Amino acid sequence: MGRTLAEKVWSDHIVHEGDGLPDLLYIDMHLVHEVTSPQAFDGLRATGRPLRRPDLTVATEDHNIPTVDVDKPIADPISRIQVETLRKNCEEFGVTLFPLGDLEQGIVHVVGPQMGLTQPGMTIVCGDSHTSTHGAFGALAFGIGTSEVEHVLATQTLPLKPFKTMAINFEGELPLGVSAKDLILAVIAQIGTGGGQGYVLEYRGEAIKGLSMEGRMTICNMSIEAGARAGMIAPDTTTFEYIKGKPHAPKGEDWEAALAYWETLVTDPDAKFDKEITIDASALRPFVTWGTNPGQGLPLDQSVPDPQSFSDPVEREAVENALAYMDLRPGQPLKEIAVDTVFLGSCTNGRIEDLRAAAHVIKNRKVAKGVRLLVVPGSTRVRIEAEHEGLDQIFLDAGAEWRGAGCSMCLAMNPDKLTPGERSASTSNRNFEGRQGPGGRTHLVSPEVAAATAVRGTLSDPTDLVEV
Amino acid sequence: MEAFTVHTGTAAPLHRSNVDTDQIIPAEYLKRITRHGFEDALFASWRKDPEFVLNLPQYEAASILIAGPDFGTGSSREHAVWALQDYGFKVILSSRFADIFRGNSGKGGLLTAVIPQDAIEKLWEITEASPSTPVTVDLQERCVTAGSFSCDFEVDDYVRWRLLEGLDDIGITLEHADAIGEFEKKRPSFKPVLN
Lengths: 468, 195
Known about the structure:
The complex is a heterodimer.
Chain A: H1 5-11, E1 14-16, E2 23-26, E3 29-32, H2 38-47, E4 57-60, H3 77-93, E5 96-98, H4 108-114, E6 123-126, E7 140-143, H5 146-155, E8 157-160, E9 164-171, H6 180-191, E10 199-205, H7 206-209, H8 213-221, E11 230-232, H9 237-243, H10 253-262, E12 275-280, E13 287-289, E14 297-299, H11 313-326, E15 341-344, H12 346-349, H13 352-362, E16 372-375, H14 380-388, H15 391-398, E17 401-402, E18 423-426, E19 441-444, H16 447-456
Parallel strand pairs in A: 3-4, 3-6, 4-5, 6-7, 9-10, 9-12, 10-11, 15-16, 15-18, 16-17, 18-19
Antiparallel strand pairs in A: 1-2, 2-8, 13-14
Chain B: E1 6-9, E2 11-14, H1 21-24, E3 64-67, H2 79-87, E4 91-94, H3 99-108, E5 111-114, H4 117-129, E6 135-138, E7 143-146, E8 149-152, H5 157-165, H6 169-174, H7 177-185
């Protein structure tokens, strides 16, 4: 019988199997950042174990760094110690590090692909749940905890039970004005935050094939919000062209050999998924979350739901809690919700194409009075590229703040936070209570909706804007 | 890791679904570089509410948490497991756990036992009516007991074996060091390496 893409990549990485134990899976690339690694390096020291493959390990600083005054020492002493600890650990164990101020620094999931370190058929892990991003290249990529970070540092492997496979088939093409973010938010709303639990999702169909690598990364990135550990998209010419010429892309004969292998990385026609769902892509519209988990979302032209319309008591209670926290009333049109802050950035939507899409909407327009628009490029290279294209000036002219690269307000570990009660439209991935700062309220949106919302001050899509 | 066979303690009912790791431990607390000392961070935001279950004196000594479905969703932060353990929890009961959280729990010796939602609701009732009811979680028998109520729970076989034996995962893997070396010899040259 044929095999799925995920099964092919899995079986190509089995170091050891049998004995009733999980498979021992080889890890091709281990991405490291400052927050989930210090205790893992401590573990190596405590047990006297060496780092097995420093050449398959790469680190950057992203979660806990400021996005202003990046040339100065980090002001928060606890943050500074954590970042300095990463630097010391990388020095001691021989790990390549892209620190704050380096041209290659940025959010770990933006850095990997832009350096060509993310390639089809690889196994990629990182102590960060959004490692699923790299699945856009046909890699099997998933987030791990700190104990597993230590495990990979020591052995370059992980003991794992095979994931189940789920196909998410999109029928039809994505309508104009509907982005990859809208598509994935709609998937999560349909299958729920636990719907993908135990599965690797494979996104398939014309709507996926038509997306750029940036769009595919946005989709795979949020697989974790559907409960799946990984999401994958079969590599094709769009993938190969994106990788070609990147600093770590294979060259010469290696390129030919790699390409021959990559072309085999598709789900066989007779393969069987453990589960399949189908979504009509042509019916999708701009999407937004109204609640406090990413599954609580609706098309932007709808209204806040009524808890009484949910029959399941657990779900009804969750909706009541969410509306109370979000300070929303049932029946309120989503487009009437006013925001204080708009955040454009993150590993979900902080790549160059995302900035271009938002800049296109906001060009020659102004951010609404009383609204703050924070633009945080996903990496230093994205920032430089955007500046080269003049996007920074478009944002600055509109009244936005143009920042240095990092995770920033996506998780509010650094000083970029919402204040209690403040409401944001955010291109990031999580609308949990307090995610963007204690007491902050988050609505997840696409870059286009973020830009239109910044202009109007209420949740909006670009078609709501008057011509300029 | 300390072996886990049977645990008996009191339990706290947490009437929430989708308890994400940002609620278990907000990002602010992840700046610390130690593996312990996170007890103050557990549910830091919810604990500001005097009515929050862990602030009620009758649940002060609870070592078992009974939660709604989809516990531990979100970020991969293992700090969530450390915070629950540092606070004193040995077992979390839910009808469904997020994958990464469940994996992290197994590594650190926190038992995540899966029971159906109707059993969760029964345990909520019991521990609300009588908070001092001893709850016993038997990993050998895969069984939860509270008074006259009893139900089997699901736990991954491999995790169960490791917890019962108190084994170190890395130690088990390093027994296959030769196989890892052999695998590395066959890896294609086109795969990326850092210099």
